[in-house]
Amino acid sequence: MKLTFIGAAHEVTGSCTLIEACGKNILVDCGMEQGRDTYVNCEIPVEPEKIDAILLTHAHIDHSGKIPALVAAGYDNPIYATEATKQLCDIMLRDSAHIQESEAEWKNRKAKRAGEEAIVPIYTIQDAENSMKLFKSCYYHEPYPIFDCITVEFIDAGHLLGSSSILVTIKEGEETRKLLFSGDVGNIDRPLIRDPEKPEEADFVVIESTYGNRLHEAREDYVTQLSAIIQETLDRGGNVVIPSFAVGRTQILLYLIRMIKEQNLVQGHENFPVYVDSPLAVEATEIYSAPLTEFFDEETLELLSKGINPIKFPNLHLTITTDESKQINFDQEPKVILSASGMCEAGRIRHHLKHNLWREDSTIVFVGYQVEGTLGRKIMDGAESVRLFNEEIAVRAEIKEIADISGHADRDMLLDWLGNIKQAPRKVFVNHGGDTVCDEFAESIRTRLGLDAVAPYSGDAFDLLLEEFTEKAAIVKAVSKKKAAKEKVSAVYHALWEAGQRLLRVIERNKGGANKDLEKFTDRIQSLCDKYDR
Length: 534
Hints:
The protein has 534 residues and is of the alpha/beta class. Helices cover 36% and strands 20% of the residues. The chain has helices at 61-64, 67-72, 83-114, 125-132, 222-236, 249-262, 279-288, 298-305, 322-330, 349-356, 375-380, 411-419, 435-449, 481-509, 515-532, and strands spanning 2-7, 16-21, 24-28, 53-55, 79-82, 135-138, 144-147, 150-156, 164-172, 175-181, 204-208, 240-243, 274-277, 316-319, 336-339, 363-366, 385-388, 391-394, 398-401, 427-431, 453-454, 461-463, 468-471.
């Protein structure tokens, strides 16, 4: 009975943990890494066709994004998730596959011109569609015996529509172990979805730590903050550009803007236009408009019972095509633009930033966590200019943040969630956080709750019966492609510099040589200088 930590170990993205028990291999999440890598992750130590099940906490790509690659490599067993997670994965995995195919096509055009070998996308749209055939929908609070000796139960994590914490109960002979995987624990008092449910039992807990070393600020009303930003920006004649995760965050913002319009909180621009410029966000908005009543909070259910769509309103434009997207920036009317991706690493948001970052009358509003190394983080940290589409763009727009709209619980919320377990867990494993954040949160658990907590690295394996680590992997820091290229250039230049120093020594040793030889030597040096002089 063993746990192996694979992804999101001392990192925020790429969640993936392997359970080996009762002769079965079970993955909890199979996510894609996003932003800058901190460490090199180990490979899943089991062949895809020998994995017996996947348990999926929620649809975000950093938890689900590698499932199609696993299916393409031979995985053909059930994927257990809630119905809302299944519906969101249907659009998100297809969208991710489209990105993989498009990037491969673009790179292959360059490779062909350079005479290099073509690359193959990580997975295709067909792989994503094949993945969806494996999903099995689960309800909250119902135990599912996925194997004779293993039962799973989903509870509401309050992070995203359909998000879950998963309790895995394993019986091997006379021994029983209960493993709780937090998934991403949500913030409280957010629109549309319920607050996270607090667990009551677990022997071992794997808990996220995205905000494990900080607290959300005292919250100013979301509607008040956003309406003030919109009012000030539209009064200046600028645009409000909001980089927003297509699934979850965008729908919450639409909920808030509906309230702003309904209460007439923006004066002089009562019918201001709002654009959702992301095909994925448009599809997700339709899912959020569907009758998935099990997953909505009471306020949302009350609106739906009155026939009110909680995330739609007059002058809302859902743009699908590229031409529709381009037209937004040709339209001079001040407007609100919501576009993906939330960290500005890809997608149409980069075009809107190109057209608005340099404008002093526009405002860029960040409403979610920005991973270190992403474009969003650079702008948030005060960059004076950024590079977009091979062009240097000045940052003159007003930069704002509505921090408390985050979908993640902060440190004290996480401690409260963990502390609700009635009988103290035997061990807590901290993951899904920044490198130092994981360790800091593990220390908070030890000092505040008195629990045994540790932050494992990728490749570490823990025996649940012996209650000890049986494998401790080598810790390998990841090196970015840019840094690797820079280091390679530095090494080559250093070799050139050393060659120059040697040349000077050779010149010194030729002092007093025959004039004919010295002239020939001089000509060759001058010829090289003429060729390489910059």
